[in-house]
């Protein structure tokens, strides 16, 4: 008999890992877990057991909204010919090392 | 301690490839390797100490033939010898850790009881007067803290989950309860270690253990089992039949092909 009140599959979660203090959290992958606590622990076991991280974020995949692939032309291609938006037209002082 | 760590580590490793989902399969094997790492540290230290003993004490401590063959050839023992060359009666692990995995609920309940004990035990060992033991306790405590968090959450999740998961974890808690008393009964070795200042008053840990276990079981909407007859014997080498099967699998390669490496 179909059980309508219990989900048979645990929801999917997206995992973001900060590899060291000061860096951004980066998307590491996804996994299944029953709740947020378990998702963090699963992420710890799946994605940080080789010292990959010092901090974990998880978010249920349901709550991630994405841009539409079929609109990518309208969204992204207009930027292609606007090279003046790149900061390459400035004269930098010699003292400035890391630009 | 080393035997406890090796045997529970082996039990958890039996889940490898059989976990209910990939993520928990990895979680269990991670923890299995934590236990194995603790066992290695302790066996290394135990082997070093054993090698310094006078011959008659070496013979009394362990009587397994394979081990004694090596000892009587005047060979120094190493960690692997203690793991692979002793028979069941020379293992001093508590009965709790050798109990079979049976199902997920049993595995969780067994780990929960053991982790709660281990956490208190290693915490108390930080005050040992033996620097090596303190160093092992410091390293292990980080792992054990996570183990206890993980197994506590699973007890709560199963107890406060569906009626089926509730019943299964309650059954596991009831059935394994009889193996928890032994954790707090000091063996002759425990008493000697305490008297010499490197051990722990193991019976003093019981109050804190009961408090932690009661709190989690209550939060999980489960019942703490009534006081019952407590099994014991593991600490003096009197084991359930399960340990023999564990050792058969664990030791087969070294017994069949002595000194093999891979």
N-to-C series of helices and strands of chain B? HHHHHHHHHHHH
Distance between the amino and carboxyl termini of chain B: 27 Å
Number of helices in the DSSP assignment of chain A? 2
CATH architecture of chain B: Up-down Bundle
On the 0 to 100 scale, the average pLDDT of chain B is 96
What order do the SSEs of chain A take from the amino end to the carboxyl end, as H and E? EEHEH
Let me know the number of strands of chain B: 0
The CATH C-level name of chain B is Mainly Alpha
Secondary-structure arrangement, i.e. CATH architecture of chain A: Roll
Helical content class of chain B: 55-70%
- What's the count of strands of chain A? 3
Q: What's the overall geometry of chain A?
A: flat
- Given this structure, which CATH class of chain A is correct? Alpha Beta
Strand and helix map with partners:
The complex is a heterodimer of chains A (99) and B (262).
Chain A lengths: L11 E7 L6 E8 L3 H12 L7 E6 L11 H5 L23
Antiparallel strand pairs in A: 1-2, 1-3
Chain B lengths: L1 H12 L8 H30 L3 H7 L3 H8 L6 H6 L10 H4 L5 H22 L5 H29 L3 H14 L11 H8 L10 H14 L22 H15 L6
Core attributes:
heterodimer, A: 99 residues, alpha+beta, 17% helix, flat, B: 262 residues, mainly alpha, Ferritin, globular
